[in-house]
Amino acid sequence: xxTSVQVTPLCGVYxxxxxSYLVSIDxxxxxxxxxxxxxxxxxxxxxxxxxxxxxxxxxxSHSDTLHLGALPYAMKQFGLSAPVYSTEPVYRLGLLTMxxxxxxxxxxxxxxxxxxxxxxxxxxxxxxxxxxxxxHLSGKGEGIVIAPHVAGHLLGGTVWKITKDxxxxxxxxxxxxxxxxxxxxxxxxxxxxxxxLITDAFNALNNQTYKRHQDKEFGDIIKETLRAGGNVLLxxxxxxxxxxxxxxxxxxxADESLSYPIFFLTYVASSTIDYVKSFLEWMSDSITKSFExxxxxxxxxKHVTLLVNKTELDKAADGPKxxxxxxxxxxxxxxxDIFVEWAADPKNRVLFTERGQFGTLxxxxxxxxxxxxxxxxxxxxVPLVGEELIAYEEEQNRIKKEEALKASLIKExxxxxxxxxxxxxxxxxxIDASNSxxxxxxxxxxxxxxxxxxxxxxxxxxxxxxxxxxxxxxxYENTSEWDDFGEIIxxxxxxxxxxxxxxxxxxxxxxxxxxxxxxSASLILDTKPSxxxxxxxxVQVRCSLKYMDFEGRSDGRSIKSILSxxxxxxxxxxxxxxxxxxxxxxxxxxxxxxHVYAPQIEETTxxxxxxxxxxxxxxxxxxxxxxxxxxxxxxxxxxxxxxGKTDGGMLSLLPLPTSAPPHKSVLVGDLxxxxxxxxxxxxxxxxxxxxxxxxxxxxxxxxxxxxxxQKGGGSGTQQIxxxxxxxxxxxxxxxxxxxxxxxx
Length: 744
Prior knowledge:
Elements: E1 5-11, E2 20-25, E3 28-32, H1 46-51, E4 57-59, H2 65-68, H3 71-77, E5 84-87, H4 88-106, H5 116-123, E6 126-129, E7 135-136, E8 144-150, E9 158-164, E10 167-172, E11 196-200, H6 214-227, E12 232-235, H7 242-256, E13 262-265, H8 269-277, H9 285-294, E14 304-307, H10 310-315, E15 322-325, H11 334-342, E16 349-352, H12 361-365, E17 373-383, H13 386-419, H14 440-447, E18 482-483, E19 486-487, H15 518-525, E20 530-540, E21 544-547, H16 556-566, E22 570-574, H17 578-591, E23 596-597, E24 605-606, E25 617-618, H18 620-623, E26 629-631, E27 634-636, E28 641-645, E29 651-655, E30 667-668, H19 673-682, E31 687-690, E32 693-696, E33 700-705, E34 719-723, H20 728-738, E35 742-743
Parallel strand pairs: 3-4, 4-5, 5-6, 10-11, 11-22, 12-15, 12-16, 13-14, 13-15, 16-21, 22-23, 25-29
Antiparallel strand pairs: 1-2, 1-24, 2-3, 7-8, 8-9, 9-10, 17-20, 18-19, 26-27, 28-29, 30-35, 31-32, 32-33, 33-34
């Protein structure tokens, strides 16, 4: 039978919820995408929690929250420990996206679902692959090959190709076939007739009228608002579609010679652009060629100012301005606060470039007609003062004293246990090493920085007890363990306590490597006692609201055309509204393939191939007599054999017991008549097309006959016919024709 394939949605089917799917291939479990939404609702992850421990590998397709937002939480809470695979941009920009999400929420709430350390820990397990790189899995996944391919939509966005025993399983969601300013489109030729295709129905009902001048219309709307004295807010993601918008605005500002300020405001804005500058090889052909010719980086932004805190924006000069601020959902982040400030002014405009997530403020404002007033929660973190600060400090002091006392008691018990009977408490010359009457601070001073107790020390002002025994320096048995290299080090002696650790040192650079944005670093380094103050507001929405589609996804018509070209044997539809999913399902059943599935949450669908495929082993005795011929990147040979079984019971091809009769000669290759025409011309033969045939010299004709229009491509039953009298030209041209093939 064919390769066993089962698909189980964990989130994101028949709705627009985050994407997360379990795909099992011959018992090897892939978790493809691990998304969350801007509400960070743990109930969405319940199906994932039930299977997290069985996951063998995680594949991430895009760098936004909907595709990878739950990864830190799942690794911390659900025991997800499988290796993770993504492209370099998805890894870097996904990390910054999660930092921005955490910092945006920590500033306005007691967010505790995950920490910056949890984010770092999750992303450290990611293996980065380049486009079209075949990565062979080992162990339980032996024989499975994974490869990322260009998806468009977001920088580093991936269509995953999983291959086992010659059968392909393709995961392609949120792809874009169109080339954009900073991204190439999907390469459809890489996915022809896969055994299984998993794709989304998100845009199935969205048939765009593509406008060649959409970028200019976008800029004109912004310019119109600015010239009328208003401000423009663009709620954007952290490091995804905002990159395309920045390039559009850079180009428009240069063409129109505008001087209005543009601000890109997120907690990680500087780090985002710094990394993007180094990802040119992942971008569109036009950007890479431009860099090769001029050495000018497209993301050396000349008209955009990068900001990492709102204070800098508030200090900016008064007057019309454009602000691109996260988050796109308006649920949190700088965009939320700016919207509340600007919404009441009719001169201002909020320009949405993507559909808001379901149930968010952005989605509500995009309704038709939009609400005239909305209730929002304004929160901010403020330092404690007065009685609250005193109470907080007293509580902290009490906790520290309790911890110090507990540590002292534990150390005392350890010392007593280690000395045991060696310490004779009746001996007047023995001093109590635990020094139980000393304060914890004195103990730390006397014990030294390692806190290891009294070792080889002298005590000033030593007064011997009144006895006949002469005064002596105190001696304590050294209980340290030694090996050939000296004293064995106890790592616990050097561990810095959490409360004394500079937390920012763990996150310098916005990731594990680089320099954190100043605003983000100040937020983390700020250890002053604080609290979150919230209040409900009713915001009168008098500003203009506009939605323009810059999501960078293929629309419904394009999706249907692409699916027909890919022509999968079996199709699984995920992520889209119920209406869009059913619409695309019915279309595909009629026009794409007879096996179309749209499973529900936690419903396992078996999409195992119906092909009668068998695995066979080529015996060494057979292979020792096979002669291979080179054909491009491959080697081919003709084999006459019979099917038998090895000692292990596996099917094997064995040599025939008697000599096989000679087989008819086989010509292997693909002849293209235009190319062959040029070849013959280079040999001095006069050649011209006569209809669909090739007229060679005066007497010889070459033509292709048979059906060349079979679905899925290929030559079908085509044959090449050479006609003419048996003359010198005939044999010469036939020899040239044979040279274009490999003869078996």
